Amino acid sequence: MSIKMLPSAGLVLIVSLGATGAISAPVKIVGFDDMSCRAWVKSKDDAEQRKAYLAWIRGVLTGHNYANPSQAVSSVSSGTVENFVDRYCVEKPLGEFSDAALRMSDKFSGRNDPITK
């Protein structure tokens, strides 16, 4: 998947979430082959990979804003995104950074709870 397509992948994910209005089954993540926190931590030493991951996460947040304009995520810096995902992955080392992106959209949109049915 090219880096230019990554924000679009996040947009597709969030638009599909907004269209259903709820998450009743595991979300099919359109992203990288390895979305683990382990891959996120490892990317700290690979500037290009980290840049791609950050672009994907910012695409998820943009998609959230598109699908939920009344609960839009405020403009956040890449540093804020990186810090949020770093903390998430410290707390959940066996988790996936895609989940961190979704939790970030929950927190920064003012909803503070995951979308539920």
Descriptive report:
The protein has one domain (3-19, 35-108). The chain has five helices and no strands. It is an all-alpha fold and 117 residues long. Helices cover 58% and strands 0% of the residues.
Mean of pLDDT? 79
Number of strands: 0
The termini sit apart by 31 Å
User: What percentage of the residues does DSSP assign to strands (E)?
Assistant: under 5%
Number of helices, where a helix is a run of at least 4 consecutive DSSP H or I residues = 5
- Estimate percent helicity: 55-70%
| Largest sheet properties | none
Low-confidence stretches: 19-23
Helix-strand category: mainly alpha
Radius of gyration: 13 Å
Judging from the principal axes of the Cα atoms, what is the shape?
Answer: globular
Order of helices and strands: HHHHH
- Domain module tally: 1
